[in-house]
From TrEMBL:
<feature type="domain" description="Methyltransferase">
    <location>
        <begin position="46"/>
        <end position="148"/>
    </location>
</feature>
<dbReference type="InterPro" id="IPR041698">
    <property type="entry name" value="Methyltransf_25"/>
</dbReference>
<dbReference type="InterPro" id="IPR029063">
    <property type="entry name" value="SAM-dependent_MTases_sf"/>
</dbReference>
<protein>
    <recommendedName>
        <fullName>Methyltransferase domain-containing protein</fullName>
    </recommendedName>
</protein>
<dbReference type="Pfam" id="PF13649">
    <property type="entry name" value="Methyltransf_25"/>
</dbReference>
Length: 257
């Protein structure tokens, strides 16, 4: 099965239970870090690449964003996201589009003048080749206004002890080397376990800023995990993660023209 079809299948199969991830320790930490990275979104238009059911899109709305356009490869994830929006009595606050975010998105009715913020959470965990990774970065930068903010969740260490025993709600299994990176099976330990096949390149999980800089992103920085309330409340519990983080939330700015 082609990689893109496997990703689509994995997310379609997990769509109903995916929002349970937010209750896991990793999910709580990720949510806090993204909200810190987003900051004040008052009046902003946001593009959410690989946004799934809209978990972080809704957080952006809560932080003041006027609208979020969300693009994801999984029709089932999009369907659930749309149902959630309807249950909240909202229409077109979050727009949902189905597409592969590593390919050109010109066929979608996205904002021609760009977005104030572009989010790309975990999409680089499905980029097992430079061709795919570069396609994702082209979309990030192509739709981001000059001076706009980029926010991303990425792998930090596929071999971290923090993802060996499920302590924080996730396990990486069958980690194998691929050219330039690693391939793995991710298990989220929700009430009903969720599995995804992932692949990440070292140029991303090593913490290198090379790709960001190549595509005109500056001021690249990792949001400190220690700045979150969930870790401040129980630093001992998070000690294993802090020693060798398995993921990171990164923010950057697009260069002014």
């Amino acid at each position: 099965m082609a990689v893109v079809e496997q990703v689509k299948k994995d997310y379609d199969n997990s769509a109903v239970n995916y929002n349970d991830y937010g209750s896991l320790p990793f999910g709580q930490l990720e949510s806090e870090l993204i909200k810190i990275a987003l900051g004040d979104c008052s009046g902003l238009a946001i593009l959410d690449l690989g946004g799934g059911t809209g978990v972080h899109a809704r957080e952006a709305i809560d932080l003041g964003a006027v609208t979020v356009d969300l693009v994801d490869i999984s029709p089932e994830m999009l369907k659930i996201g749309l149902e959630i929006e309807k249950s909240l009595g909202r229409e077109n606050t979050i727009r949902f589009f189905e597409a592969d975010v590593s390919k050109p998105l010109s066929h979608l009715p996205l904002h021609e003048n760009g977005y104030d913020v572009v989010m790309a959470n975990w999409i680089f965990s499905h980029a097992g080749s430079m061709e795919v990774l570069e396609g994702m970065f082209r979309n990030v930068v192509g739709y981001l206004k000059p001076g706009g903010r980029f926010v991303s969740v990425r792998d930090a260490d596929p071999n971290s002890p923090a993802v060996e025993n499920g302590k924080y709600g996730a396990t990486y299994k069958c980690v194998k080397d691929i050219p330039g990176g690693s391939k793995y099976l991710l298990v989220l330990h929700c009430t009903r376990p969720i599995e995804f096949e992932g692949a990440s390149l070292e140029i991303i999980y090593s913490g290198s800023t090379e790709m960001h800089e190549r595509f005109g992103l500056t001021d690249v920085e990792v949001v400190p995990s220690e700045s979150t309330e969930v870790i401040q409340k129980d630093p001992e519990f998070w000690k294993l993660f802090l020693e060798r983080p398995s993921f990171a939330v990164v923010k950057a700015t697009k260069e002014m023209e």
